[in-house]
TrEMBL record:
The protein, known as: Glucosamine 6-phosphate N-acetyltransferase
GO biological process, one term: UDP-N-acetylglucosamine biosynthetic process
Enzyme class (EC, first level): transferase
Occurrences of domain N-acetyltransferase (ranges): 15-162
Matching Gene3D superfamilies: 3.40.630.30
Matching SUPFAM superfamilies: Acyl-CoA N-acyltransferases (Nat) (SSF55729)
C-alpha cells in the first residue's frame, strides 16, 4: 500500500499514522483490537491473515496509530473497498474496527484515524463511505461528518471451518 494515500500530517506528538505492518503483532495490534471486541489470535494466524489481505492491495486498508516512544499500537481502523455494479460500477467504502486504546482516549486519535480512512476513500474514488456503530458512538461519527441513515441489521452465523 502506498503511503501517498495517507493524509498529512502522518506524525503528530510522537504518534505516527501509517498502514498496518507485519511487525505490529509484537506492538500490540491484537491487544488494541481486543478493546473493541473478541480479537485474540496467534502470531501465525496474524501472519496468514496479513498475507491474505496484502494480496488484495486495492481492497483492504488498515491504518494504525503507533506511539513511537512505547512502540505500541494505540489506535486502528479499517477501510474495506467494495466493488459494485451500481453507480456506474462504482466503489463503496466500509469503515470497520475503529478502536483507540483506553489510556489514549480523548486525544482525537479516533478522529484522526477516521480522517485517514476518509482521505483514502476519497483518493480511491469511493462514492460513499458507510459504517456501523452503537448508539453511544453516533455523536462521535457525526463530528466526523457522517450522518445517521437507515437501520443496521445483523445475522451472526456460527463459526465453521472449511
Amino acid at each position: 500500500m502506498s503511503s501517498s494515500l495517507l493524509k498529512e500530517p502522518r506524525e503528530i506528538d510522537e504518534i505516527v499514522y501509517r498502514f498496518l505492518e507485519i511487525s505490529d503483532f509484537e506492538k500490540g495490534f491484537s491487544e488494541c483490537l481486543q478493546q473493541l471486541t473478541e480479537a485474540k489470535f496467534t502470531k501465525s494466524q496474524f501472519i496468514d491473515r496479513y498475507s491474505e489481505l496484502k494480496k488484495q492491495p486495492d481492497t483492504y486498508f488498515i491504518v494504525v496509530a503507533e506511539d513511537l516512544k512505547k512502540k505500541k499500537i494505540i489506535a486502528c481502523g479499517t477501510l474495506f473497498v467494495e466493488k459494485k455494479f451500481i453507480r456506474n460500477c462504482g466503489t463503496c467504502g466500509h469503515i470497520e474496527d475503529i478502536v483507540v486504546d483506553k489510556t489514549y482516549r480523548g486525544k482525537n486519535l479516533g478522529l484522526r484515524i477516521i480522517e485517514q480512512l476518509t482521505h483514502i476513500g476519497k483518493k480511491l474514488g469511493c462514492y460513499k463511505l458507510i459504517l456501523d456503530c452503537s448508539d453511544s458512538n453516533v455523536k462521535f461519527y457525526e463530528k466526523c461528518l457522517f450522518e445517521k441513515k437507515g437501520v443496521q441489521m445483523s445475522l451472526y452465523l456460527p463459526m465453521s471451518k472449511l
